[in-house]
Amino acid sequence: MFSGIVEGKGKVxxxxxxxxxxxxxxLPPKNFSKNLKKGASISVDGVCLTSLDTGKKVLxxxxxxxxxxxxxxxxxxxxxxxxxxxxxxxxxxIGGHLMSGHIHCIGxxxxxxxxxxTKDILVSFPKNYGExxxxxxxxxxxxxxxxxxxxxxxxxxxxxxxxxxSVTNLDMLSTKSKVNIEIDxxxxxxxxxxxxxxxxxxx
Length: 203
What we know:
By secondary structure, this protein is mostly beta strands. It folds into two domains: 8-86, Elongation Factor Tu (Ef-tu), domain 3 (Beta Barrel), CATH 2.40.30.20; 105-188, Elongation Factor Tu (Ef-tu), domain 3 (Beta Barrel), CATH 2.40.30. Helix content is 15%, strand content 38%. It is built from three helices and twelve strands. A six-stranded antiparallel beta sheet has the order 4-3-6-1-2-5. Strands 7-8-11-10-9-12 form a six-stranded antiparallel beta barrel. Strand 9 and strand 10 form a beta hairpin. It is globular.
């Protein structure tokens, strides 16, 4: 599990395509890999990946075909900057919201409004997820825990503060960029529970 509070950006320094997966190496921020163990879970742009070793110098991952099909990691290139977060522990302060690292869908950036020190971005999403996306609710974007702004039929606004723009790769997004979306699991559970109750009452 993750908190959605990105610890820093990592740079992809090696990428190798295999028959049904890709192998990537990422240079992490200073001290990010301290006490990291082989097999540890790391959020890479919101995707939960398993570390192949202790990450002493670089982080190493295999990304399987299923993950590539469902996330924006299929477009990753050498030199790409990705958001990184270590999995939470019992002592972790949860500043965002709990996230699993399992991506629900890919969103596309439709509009970016630059302000003096902040940005508003409009993100489109598949319509079939609309019932789980509410204004002022939580959403995970490339591993960042964010609060939803105005929600339209198949798009929503995000309002990014300077800290988020500084620490994460969201400042580098442009129109048509693809982002990983993880919907808040508690919202999904609540919506599905209400739907089941209503269905029972009608039967």
